[in-house]
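Two quick folds needed for the group meeting slides. Do the first one here.
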Amino acid sequence: MPVKVLVVDDSGFFRRRIAEILNADIGIEVVGTAEDGQKAVDAVKELDPDVVTMDIEMPVMDGITAVRKIMADHPRPILMFSSLTTEGAQATLDALEAGAVDFLPKRFSDMAGDEDSARALLRRRVRSLARSRARSSSAPGGDRPKTEAPVSERRQAADRKASETARETPKPPVARPPAPLSSLRAVLIGTSTGGPVALQEVLKHLPANFPLPVVLVQHMPASFTPAFAERLDAICPIRIKQAVDGDFLRPGTALLAPGGQQLTLERGSQTRVRVTESPAGTIYKPSVDAAFESAVDALRGQVLAVILTGMGADGREGVRALKGCGAQVWSQDAATSVVYGMPAAVAEAGLTDHVYPLPEIGPALVKGFC
């Protein structure tokens, strides 16, 4: 059966354009359109699409509110269309927090080098998200759970709980890391589709005094990574900043690779990052492979490499190089991945030491290193 898609946008031209692109794929069928968020909520209930494409700014009900309502009552993959501006980045991150699983630039010239490539990318993304829904629906527990309270409310509640616990409970002694992890010098995390939410889930567990530096490589446009780093830093105990050329790796600090560029690691008396322009023809900007492969020399492979949800196989060859130097490798499982592409590529190549559900990765890092 073809993938059923609902297209939501207040622009009739854009709705027709997206529908035309998707319907050109024999495996996809646009079953309906909607011009505002309220009609989108109603159409999801009536048409039961496999995937929804959603605009952000719309009359009657905006896209973020619509995402929240859909995910609360009839959860399914929602692909946001966003402008690549600072305001667009903030709104898109809000939509991902509300329950959307991925986004694409609304202007096709920002999506790919030519129109045909952009069209193919959109169709691939929709098919991949539909497969993720089929996988999650067949897993125990069914569709994605209802959305939680906003991050600010959860953070305040967590802070109150932590404060009360600290007053009432004596702090236990810090356990030594297991032998395989005790000699490691950094944690490297690579991700793509579904990564913004996955990274937040992992990093919220890491304390401010986490003993190792962390490097984050998330496929994301250049205009998005500054806002994403600021958001993560505001809600996670560990310090998080967008990397700049020359930054040193420091314990308790996570450096996010800037979008549109490449981050690599450079050996010296203290390991530092290099941020450079991407060579012509580079697919991923930033690339997980490039960052991970540079750690072979810079850190002698003494790292824990973690591959989270994402489309494609970026990270597999970098992990392979690190594994040859004795690095430890963890990957996210299929059931909790928005798209089981990158973790699957590593696992199917026999490179993964441990496979974890997403909620267990952060606690496992704390247990292993704190």
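Then this one, please, same format:
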Amino acid sequence: MADRPGDQWDRRVANGLAFLRRRLAGDYEVDEFGFDPELTDAVFHPLLRLLYRDWFRTEVSGVEHVPGDGPALVVGNHSGTVALDALILSAALHDKHPARRYLRLLGADLVFRMPVVSEIARKTGGTVACKPDAERLLGGGDLVGVFPEGFKGIGKLYADRYKLQRFGRGGFVSAALRTGTPIVPVAIVGGEEIYPMLADIKPLARLLKLPYFPVTPTFPWLGPLGMVPLPSKWLIEFCPPIPTVHLTDSADDPLVVFNLADQVRETIQQTLHTLLERRPDPFGP
């Protein structure tokens, strides 16, 4: 017999109350980094799902290139003034991957110095972008997500959209080499249009101790409403993995690290060009 509408709501209420009881009683688990899978599944991913599925109309391809088990380093391009691309990527990957894998994001120090933001980052599986933490996660068989452009990527002007910035010193490559972990490049189109940065007020950024202070078509002119992201069309494509197990002895070789980082960067850049051809209208269906 099919459930009546009332039965579905009764079940949802019962599940919600059971969730609250477990949280209040402390009957849940977090790992050594503070990751809380239950809270992520029950609260954060449903909110992000509304964004990536309904607001950004995200299409995901190439998820078969992400391993079903064991470690992998997922390396993506960074953009958008606010780092929504990292959150959208983690939620979309979890939902689309057959194994429902979690992506453990590596974030800048600033993220973990901010009240509330730091707690949310930890609860959703994030940790500081440093080689020791990356190697521990990869050594434990996790999927790790990194955006080597850092603030240079998310803080670039709209005129430089989809032009990859420098990949730092290749620390992510060293972590992959030391653990023999495959690197999965991922290209994300759509983030550049959510908050198009027209200018950066550097004196104000220095005063507020921020990497940049953006001026967009809606911020700061509309106040809090200026923080609503524009509904751009998103495309996410995972590229074939790049193996590193044969290079584990070269983790400290600058030439090997540089060449591999450049290969990853070029793969992402070329994939971005292909995705942009598939999406001629940034705000299309």
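Slide caption for protein two: Strands lie at 59-61, 72-76, 103-107, 127-128, 143-146, 183-189, 199-200, 214-215, 235-238.
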